[in-house]
Write a structure and sequence with these properties.
InterPro entries: HAD-like_sf (IPR036412), HAD-SF_hydro_IA (IPR006439), HAD_sf (IPR023214), Pyr-5-nucltdase (IPR010237), SSM1_domain (IPR052791). With 229 residues, this protein is of the alpha/beta class. Helix content is 41%, strand content 10%. A six-stranded parallel β-sheet has the order 3-2-1-4-5-6, with helices on one face. 39% of the residues are buried. Bound molecules: magnesium ion. Magnesium ion (MG) binds next to loops.
Length: 229
Amino acid sequence: MASLAHRPVLFFDIDNCLYPKSTQVHRLMSDLIDAYFETHLSLSQADANQLHMRYYKEYGLAIEGLVRHHKVDPLDYNTKVDDALPLEGVIRPNPKLRKMLQDLDTTKVKPWLLTNAYISHGKRVVELLEVDDMFEGITFCDYGAEKFVCKPAREMYEKAMREAGVKDTGNCFFVDDSFINCKAAKELGWTAAHLIDSTEPEPTTRASQYQINDLEELRDIYPQFFKSA
Ligand SMILES: [Mg+2]
């Protein structure tokens, strides 16, 4: 089984990636995040939204800015934002996604989740999609840790590699809807596919090696990982 131990890893982002952006979960999330900024930083709704967007652009997620600049407890934030999202009935089982994941040849590739969410949210989403059994593990942002590590920080990708048991960056493949996450992955030596919703504008420069509009396109860009027809 020596070859199995050295399988390349295909890292999947979760939010707005395993379910489409059109699900509008980011809207629900954005409202709760704005409310959190308003309550905890005593800001007007407009200022809360502006700061939230600034942190999102700068750090990849709002919570990092809250922790860095406002000493917010990330676990409290997680309870009031991610875990409070009304996802039941919004994120539904996705048989097409499940089929795509089933078509991965797991003797050739290790499917692994890589999320900036906390474990509770990450697990909840893949369970709602009914694909939770299709991954061999998950690297999440540990909101309980002393040091906050999340994409696109280099340490997060290194943590993912340690946890997934892969040493060579050339064996790391990735899909994420975030431009900065894909760019950072590529800079580290990973092969990354930037997933862009068809309703979104295309970036003027590409984030990484691949740019796709649908997860089904993984079959075309990473054919080496799929069972042959
Ligand atoms: Mg995402």
